[in-house]
Amino acid sequence: MKRLLVVGGCLLLTSCASTPSHPQDPLEPLNRAVYRFNDAADKAVLKPVAQAYQKVTPQPVRTGVGNFFDNLRDVYSAANHTLQGKAELALTDVLRVSFNSTFGLFGLIDIATPMGLKSNKATLGDTFAHYGWQNSSYLVLPLLGPSTVRDGSGILISNSLEPATGVFQTHTQATTARVLDAVNTRERLLGLETVVDGAALDNYSYVRDGFLQMRAHQLGLPQDKRQQEEDLNIDDLVDDAQDASAPAANDASAAAASPP
């Protein structure tokens, strides 16, 4: 609830920013402040926890945890594809959930992808964009990171409706699941901060431009000319980060004698 209140507060501050240096970032002063907070929290808590999680948890277990939460996201994806009128994608999501939840041991094993059922995640932010809310200001969410006002609104609404889904029976279970998902996701991104630090003088602008380019590509929207000239590919960054963290992951796997 505290996180939702913080996100809601950020969304209400859209009129409080000064002249931005980027047309899609009118909240830049606020966003930079939140970015600094997130960076400090990551260095002090999230990154150390993710590193410890990587060391003590075998790779197959981490993969299973990632698959489990990915399976839950397919449920929300099916709902959003349905809202968008994309019956084929919604059916694919439903089939993925059905196979992974049964033969995949409650989603711990992803058997749907090898079967040819491709993952095409859709969020409420995507649904808003589908119905016309395409241009949206950049917004950095506390602890959650890069987003937009549109996508942040979708997160706020989705989280408020989550208890109605019945996936988790208690607040404690839901909170524990969110923490585990966050740690597992952060573990998968270990090394990304090194790539960003080595590639840009202004990390904030670099992350912002990369995120906006990625979202424009996902939604099939025209990209900002400056972003096109820079030709920044967020997928390449993630791949580089995974390569950078590969030795640590291999050591953990070897120790276990064997983020998704």
What keyword list fits this structure?
mainly alpha; two-stranded antiparallel sheet; 12 helices; 2 strands; 3% strand; globular
**How big a fraction of the residues is strand?**
under 5%
Distance between the termini: 27 Å
Shape: globular
User: Which sheet architecture does the biggest sheet show?
Assistant: 2 strands, antiparallel
- What structural category arises from helix and sheet content? mainly alpha
Which regions are unreliable across 5 or more consecutive residues at pLDDT < 50? 11-18, 225-234, 244-260
Strand tally is 2
Mean residue pLDDT: 79
Number of helices: 12
Read across the widest sheet, the strand sequence of neighbours is: 1-2
Computed Rg: 19 Å
Helix content bin = 55-70%
The secondary-structure element order is HHHHHEEHHHHHHH
Write structural notes for this entry.
This protein has helices at 2-11, 28-56, 59-83, 87-102, 124-130, 149-161, 171-188, 192-199, 203-219, 225-230, 234-244, 246-255; strands at residues 138-141, 145-148. The protein has 260 residues and is mostly helical. Strands 1-2 form a two-stranded antiparallel sheet. Strand 1 (138-141) and strand 2 form a beta hairpin. Helix 2 crosses helix 7 (171-188) and helix 3 packs across helix 7. The model is unreliable at 11-18, 225-234 and 244-260 (pLDDT under 50).
